[in-house]
Amino acid sequence: MSPRSTKVSKYLAKHLRHAPSEIGLTLQPGGWVAVDDLLRAAGENGFPITYDELVECVETNDKRRYSFDETGDVIRASQGHSVEVDLQLEEREPPEVLYHGTVDRFLPSILSVGLNKGKRHHVHLSKDFETARKVGARRGGPVVLTVDAGRMHRDGHEFFLSANGVWLTDAVPPEYVTKT
């Protein structure tokens, strides 16, 4: 990803996940925003983005954080929102085991009270160990936790799968979490 693409991606993260109103955007159901509105708002707020840059950002983002609808007329962040939005995801049956990446300093709290969504809409879980390790490594020495997702689901907890393959749930009680 080029330095410009990284800047565009961070701009999109801020304004499609956390602060759309700062540039005059309103997320529609599903978290969608008209591409034309996004490009206009970005330009009017001192960060002009071309349509080609937007396409490059969507297509080359290694975490597939953003997606266009089938028409290409609207865009959204796949998950990770801190603003109120209904992503219109359908409940899915998760794999038996999912993973969560974190760091040592959060381990006592997690093992005591579980994983909580904090300011986001959901707890984010990975289907593979390596992705979770990379997520944990963003904040220091990574710790990977195993989540007994199959048992959680059988016990009545809901799971959703975002467009970019991140598993989402409201919370993970401590009895379903073990240090890997």
UniProtKB/TrEMBL annotation:
Q: What is its EC number?
A: 2.7.1.-
- Pfam families listed in its UniProt record: PTS_2-RNA
Q: Which NCBIfam families match?
A: PRK00819.1-4 (NF002014)
Summary of the function given for this chain in its UniProt record: Removes the 2'-phosphate from RNA via an intermediate in which the phosphate is ADP-ribosylated by NAD followed by a presumed transesterification to release the RNA and generate ADP-ribose 1''-2''-cyclic phosphate (APPR>P). May function as an ADP-ribosylase.
Protein family membership: Belongs to the KptA/TPT1 family.
Question: Which PANTHER family does its entry note?
Answer: PUTATIVE PHOSPHOTRANSFERASE, TRNA 2'-PHOSPHOTRANSFERASE 1
Q: What is this protein called?
A: Probable RNA 2'-phosphotransferase
Organism from which the protein derives: Paludisphaera borealis
